Amino acid sequence: MEEQTIVRVAVDAMGGDNAPAEIIKGTVLAVCEDNRVHAVLVGKEEVIREQLKQYTYDRERITVVHAEEVITNEEAPVMAVRRKKDSSIVKAMTLVKNNEADAFVSAGSTGAVLVGAQLIVGRLPGVERPPLAPLLPTSKGVSLLIDCGANVDARASHLVQFAKMGSVYMENVIGIKNPRVAIVNIGAEEEKGNALVKETFPLLKNCNEINFIGSIEAREIPSGYADVIVCEAFVGNVILKLYEGLAATLIGEIKKGMLSSLRSKLGGLLVKPALKETLKDLDSSKYGGAPMLGLKGLVVKTHGNSKSDEVKNSILQCIAFKEQNISEKIKSSIMVNEND
Amino acid sequence: MEEQTIVRVAVDAMGGDNAPAEIIKGTVLAVCEDNRVHAVLVGKEEVIREQLKQYTYDRERITVVHAEEVITNEEAPVMAVRRKKDSSIVKAMTLVKNNEADAFVSAGSTGAVLVGAQLIVGRLPGVERPPLAPLLPTSKGVSLLIDCGANVDARASHLVQFAKMGSVYMENVIGIKNPRVAIVNIGAEEEKGNALVKETFPLLKNCNEINFIGSIEAREIPSGYADVIVCEAFVGNVILKLYEGLAATLIGEIKKGMLSSLRSKLGGLLVKPALKETLKDLDSSKYGGAPMLGLKGLVVKTHGNSKSDEVKNSILQCIAFKEQNISEKIKSSIMVNEND
């Protein structure tokens, strides 16, 4: 019988709008759902232990590491990571750095997670910039938007690395064979675009290890036209945020419309279960949070407002990452780049 | 009694997916709806006259100018504008240039319209780059997204001009007093952003003629958080296209959801009229097309798939532009900039 992998996930018990309750609940759920998961809850020990009391789970598989401090969203990330050595983020990332954990999951300050990942966990050899790559729901499933991180004003060589890392992730973690890679552009033709895209396009076209299908206009993203959507972080952030904001606004307006008359209220009651099902399909949280790639270990940033279910899925997503040996695969895909 | 303004609008009869039928119908509707409108239909005279026969309208107020050629979406814009001197776009723009028309409306090739506007109509003195500024529907009404044109890799000084021109337009054409101006950014704080935004932010902050409210994250755009949304064209194009694509996908998925069971089908029938009303509120075509600002005359680009109603509204939007003397107002707002 094959020996079972153990995946050690450090979880920021103090990060996010619903911490610590939902984070701890999500961690317990992950441990119960998959016995490969060993979790380390990092944060105020007393608070964590108090919360854990209410659950039944395999006590061997959740340990607690005390951290006195918490980094808030309001703090300047670099300063916070440098100064708050006893914060849950810094302590949990140090576990990954020291190979006492394979992965780190946090719903806390995105800035601090991005900074800590680079300063503490560190980049894989050859990786120029580690991208943050959230999954976007589409009508066909899910696409990886890479990069939405801190790398604004990125260079063409960074974008090529993003394309490679994104392909490795989608193929091995999400299970999409030969994932289609496209670069965000303002038109389909190769000569379209800004200076960065014009420089990057031929590099991607000549990259043998990826399945590059050309440009993607933003209007084609929701239909699932590509599996890996490459862009620099400013554009990626705009896409991600608009995706969230527009979906929320549209659904809100539709709900308002349904409440506008007795007739539509009745109709609303009847369509509600079907719509709930539809909107669930468009909810990417079932895949877990956004992985930050190219690091010596996995860092997963889940939404600040994550509930236990998204926390659970973020933890479970670390299993495939470790089992598929994604860091090694990324390293060798980047190395090919270096030797081109 | 005040003398009535006459607004002379040259219309590209041959541009767009539904040309010439819907373009000509929209022109007739505009002339019938407002007697300040005098239209010049530019295109194949025989075809236009044949179409016009079916309508009843004041024959004095629609003239026809023959143009033998048509510029298609597939042609390289600069080449097409230079070579096809007898095309509807080039001929209509020449009317504006020679002050034989006040404005030009086209549903044709965006590239050719952008190029022709600069090469033929020409920029107002002091204007560095003329932006294309579509209106986005929001839950509060409509916002101006400026720029979505050809000015990728714009400079900070361009963005400041966009902010001023957009403010003049929203205040005087759409009627929003003291319009709120925000710059698209990846966080609310002044220190956030890419190099361009960091350079532009303080310039906008120090600009007395506009009501600058700071950064806008893409997620806040659909809620109507700002009236004038400033960005460079690459980002603007991504926002515009994603807006259209995501709305279409979501509405499609919701419709599919409603058809998924007998119960939801019945409910769907009941909510349909209310939803139609809601979606109409989110339809920016009632405001007309996207104005291109900073030119010696107004150029309006309507959607390629415009039907008669959007064409009509695009023509009617030229009235306020002329009556409010927008070109003069833009000129003086830009001049203030020059003397700062």
Task: Describe the protein.
The structure is a homodimer of 340-residue chains. With 340 residues, the first copy, chain A, is α/β, with parallel strands linked by helices. The first copy, chain A, is built from eleven helices and eleven strands. Chain A has helices at residues 21-33, 45-52, 77-83, 88-97, 110-121, 156-174, 195-205, 233-258, 262-281, 308-323, 326-339, and strands at 7-12, 37-43, 62-66, 103-106, 135-137, 142-146, 180-184, 211-216, 228-230, 290-292, 298-301. Chain A has a six-stranded mixed beta sheet, with helices on both faces. In chain A, strand 2, helix 2 (45-52) and strand 3 form a beta-alpha-beta unit. In chain A, helix 1 crosses helix 10 and helix 3 packs across helix 5. Chain A starts with 6 loop residues before the first strand and ends with a helix. The mean pLDDT of chain A is 91. Chains A and B meet through helix 8 and helix 9 of A and helix 8 and helix 9 of B.
Descriptors:
homodimer; 340 residues; alpha/beta; six-stranded mixed beta sheet; 15% strand
Fold blueprint:
The structure is a homodimer of 340-residue chains.
Chain A: E1 7-12, H1 21-33, E2 37-43, H2 45-52, E3 62-66, H3 77-83, H4 88-97, E4 103-106, H5 110-121, E5 135-137, E6 142-146, H6 156-174, E7 180-184, H7 195-205, E8 211-216, E9 228-230, H8 233-258, H9 262-281, E10 290-292, E11 298-301, H10 308-323, H11 326-339
Parallel strand pairs in A: 1-2, 1-4, 2-3, 4-11, 6-9, 7-8, 7-9
Antiparallel strand pairs in A: 5-6, 10-11
Helix pairs in contact in A: 1-10, 3-5, 4-5, 6-7, 6-11
